[in-house]
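Practice problem 4.
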């Protein structure tokens, strides 16, 4: 599956949309995803501009830049289709007296989200589940090298109009090994348009060991259908990327 033609087709559909429906909750930023789905027949594009990752391993220092894309399509009822990938990536590697860089595209993923209890009301509990398959069609430096299957859930509780708390749990199955992620997030709104949050990501990888990251981010609504975001996570411990950070934009298109 090639992501570029699919994204080009969907982008043309987005541009041709002339009217808007009510804005949804976006999946960016932070761990997990929104516990609501898009209205039937509407689209959303969530784009990293880009994501930055820094990791030191085996005497090498790697810096990776990723323009990650997520297209969401409302299918009706509590179901949503998602197409994800990264059409552009850049790797800068230094170590042991050598230096190299690579540019290419990453793997492509397809997913279905099911949100049987989605609600944005204060005092409400909501949850959603996401099943995803990631295909090994990326360039060598930017892909998994094998098909990956993922299953995750996000649970959210909004005690009032200002605060929201979520818990994200996910399992990735790749090359016969499991990676588990558990990430609580605590958010607070400042005014009508600004949301700030903190999060902690606890990751158990059967091959790379345990990872713990902590950080947070902000999301700012521009009008009713555009959101800007920025976030950063820092490693706590010895394993995993030392820094993960990014900025992004999310846009909702209805019809």
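Answer key:
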């Amino acid at each position: 599956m090639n992501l570029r033609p699919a994204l080009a087709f969907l982008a043309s559909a987005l541009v041709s949309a002339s009217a808007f429906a009510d804005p949804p909750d976006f999946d960016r930023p932070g761990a997990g995803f929104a516990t609501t789905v898009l209205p039937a027949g509407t689209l959303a594009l969530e784009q990293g501009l880009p994501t930055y990752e820094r990791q030191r391993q085996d005497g090498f220092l790697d810096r990776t830049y990723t323009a990650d894309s997520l297209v969401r399509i409302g299918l009706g009822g509590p179901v949503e289709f998602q197409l994800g990938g990264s059409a552009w990536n850049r790797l800068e590697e230094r170590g042991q007296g050598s230096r190299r860089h690579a540019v290419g595209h990453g793997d492509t993923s397809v997913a279905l989200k099911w949100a049987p209890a989605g609600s944005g009301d204060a005092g409400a509990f909501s949850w959603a589940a996401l099943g995803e398959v990631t295909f090994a069609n990326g360039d060598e430096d930017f892909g998994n090298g094998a098909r990956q299957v993922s299953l995750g859930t996000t649970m959210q509780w909004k005690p009032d109009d200002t605060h929201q708390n979520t818990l994200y749990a996910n399992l990735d199955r790749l090359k016969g090994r499991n990676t588990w992620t558990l990430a609580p997030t605590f958010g607070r709104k400042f005014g009508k348009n600004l949301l700030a949050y903190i999060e902690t990501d606890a990751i158990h990888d059967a091959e790379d060991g345990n990872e713990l990251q902590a950080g947070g981010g902000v999301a700012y609504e521009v009008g009713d259908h555009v959101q800007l975001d920025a976030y950063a996570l820092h490693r706590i411990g010895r394993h995993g990327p030392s820094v993960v950070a990014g900025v992004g934009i999310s846009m909702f298109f209805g019809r």
